[in-house]
Amino acid sequence: MDKNTAAQVFLRVILGVTFFIHGIAKFQGGIGNTAGFFDSLGIPGFLAYIVAGIELIGGLAVILGLGTRFVSVLFALILLGAIVTAKLPAGFLGNGQTAGYELDLALLAMSVYLACANRTVLSLDHFFNKKGGVTL
C-alpha cells in the first residue's frame, strides 16, 4: 500500500469515527433535545432523526469503506446545513457561546475528498466490486 492510499484510509476512518460518535451523542443526549434544537433554528425537528441516523449508520459504513462516496456526499450536505444554519453567525472560531465552523469546514473538505476519491483496497467497496457486486 502506498502512502496516498494509507492517507486516504486514515482520512476515511477518522471521518467515519467522528460522525459515528456524533450520531451516538445525539441519541444518548436525547434525540428529542436535538429535534428541539433543530426547531429553534427553524429546521423541522424530524430532520434530527434523519441526520442522527445518517451520522450513526453512515459513520460506521465509512469506517468500513462501504458506500463511502454516497455517504460522504450526505455528510457534506449535513455539514453545509450546519454551517449555514447554526455556525456561520458565530464566525470561524465561534463567539464564546457557540462553536465556530472551523471543524465543520475541515470535515466538509474530508467529505468532499472522499466523495471524489477512488476506492482503496482496504474497503468493503473494493472487496464487493472485485466479487462483481454493486458499486456504491
UniProtKB/TrEMBL annotation:
Top-level taxon: Bacteria
Subcellular location: Cell membrane
Keyword annotations of the record: Cell membrane, Membrane, Transmembrane, Transmembrane helix
GO cellular component, one term: plasma membrane
Transmembrane segments: 9-27, 47-66, 73-93, 105-122
InterPro entries: DoxX, DoxX-like_oxidoreductase
Pfam families in alphabetical order: DoxX
Membrane topology term: Multi-pass membrane protein
Main location: membrane
Family of this protein: Belongs to the DoxX family.
PANTHER family the record matches: INNER MEMBRANE PROTEIN YPHA-RELATED, OXIDOREDUCTASE CATD-RELATED
Protein name in the entry: Oxidoreductase
Taxonomic lineage: Bacteria, Bacillati, Bacillota, Bacilli, Bacillales
